[in-house]
Design a protein that fits this description.
The structure is a single chain. The protein has 442 residues and is mainly beta. It is 0% helix and 26% strand. It has no helices and 28 strands. Strands 18, 20, 21, 23, 26 and 28 form a six-stranded antiparallel β-sheet that branches. The protein has a five-stranded parallel β-sheet with strand order 1-4-7-11-14, with no helix packed on it. A five-stranded parallel β-sheet has the order 2-5-8-12-15, with no helix packed on it. It is globular and about 85 Å long. The two termini are 38 Å apart.
Amino acid sequence: MDRGNHNTTFQYNYSHQNLGGFLLVMPPFAIANEPTSTVPSDGTVVRYNISENDGSNSGCPTSGTQTHGGGVLHFVGGVPNQSGSSSAVPLFYNNTFSVRDGLSTPILYSRSGTSISGALSFQNNAVFNYGSGNDFTTTGTPTYSNNLFYGNHPSREPADAAKVTADPEFRNPGNASTSSSCTGKNAYQVHASSPAIRAGTVISSNGGQDAFGNAISETAAPNIGAYNGTGGNLLSNAGFETGALSPWTQASGNSSSVTAANARTGSDALTTAASTTATVYCWKNAGGSGAGYCDDLAVEPLSSATNAVTNPGYETGALTPWVQSTGTAAGVVASNACSGTYALQTAASASGAIQTVSGLTSSGTYLLVGWAKVATAGEEVAVGAKSFGGTETYLRASTTSYAQQPLSFTTGVSTTSAGVYCYKNSGSAAGYCDDYSLVKLL
């Protein structure tokens, strides 16, 4: 984006391992015999692009040395803002930026330092960042909204009240898996269970389609990132965004319906025969005084149903190959099992067990499920995963009956193992975990 440019749109690009980054943005300069050089560019739109490990040419046949510093979005100076323009700030929306572990490339970089003049609009972008780079801040008033930031979170990561921090569940991030059927830009399509689906904000004059040819509405919430599809979801009207129930049907004589309220994503929320082998439903049992809500259901085949966790239900009666994660005792007991005979029991505080699961696929997306409960209601015990190349992720249970804790994570480009655990941080009584499962998504 050179100086003095007017109404320029960058869209539908797939860029990877470019030493200079994905996009260079120039400020105005005073250059003799170039009358537009002092004019800030305006009307700039950057949308539906995929940037993979830009800012480094590691792994390319031809290598070089960066002489100006490296960033994915490389600003030479401040952000060019043209006063009086219909789009006074550059608009960055629905792009996907991926930075692998081992790189120090920031997403937002400027040669002028860590705090620069001007402002930009940054919305609906998916940032998959396993690198160590840090972003710039601006002295103007930027717009950051409905972005996804996953992986490492640098200290200057943009403040975004509507941001998503869960794993976007890309099909093959970094194109690291050579056995994947999703390569090139297709690696950045997402699974049907992705939190990016319908989690964006509506943007007018959005071009009408994403980087893959999927339509984008100007009234319904889009996905976050460059992909606006359903992720191969076998369910129709999965988020009830048509505003109607069909092809879902009533599961009983008591009425259920689609309402424009209580949506997890999009505008609408809420059972149906979704395939020839399963009935997918939303159901609230008898009792209670208030409504229940369901939204964003997904059905997707697994890459393999094989559980990667050894001794997942502690039914050997022993802890091995789990090990205590602290000096405070945690062990297997023949009581409080979710199923079978045995369960893991933690101490009241600073106590847990962890298992290192090896043989995973690098840049693979995995679903971890564990069941957990506490002896004293309101205290918390966590089911989680760490040491997989990304940021530790976990869910906490606080009920005295077992509750399922499902979470997903994506391994780093050079990581083929993960630590799965049960841990109770504080309290006055024990926590319990049982029946772990770790499976790979397609």
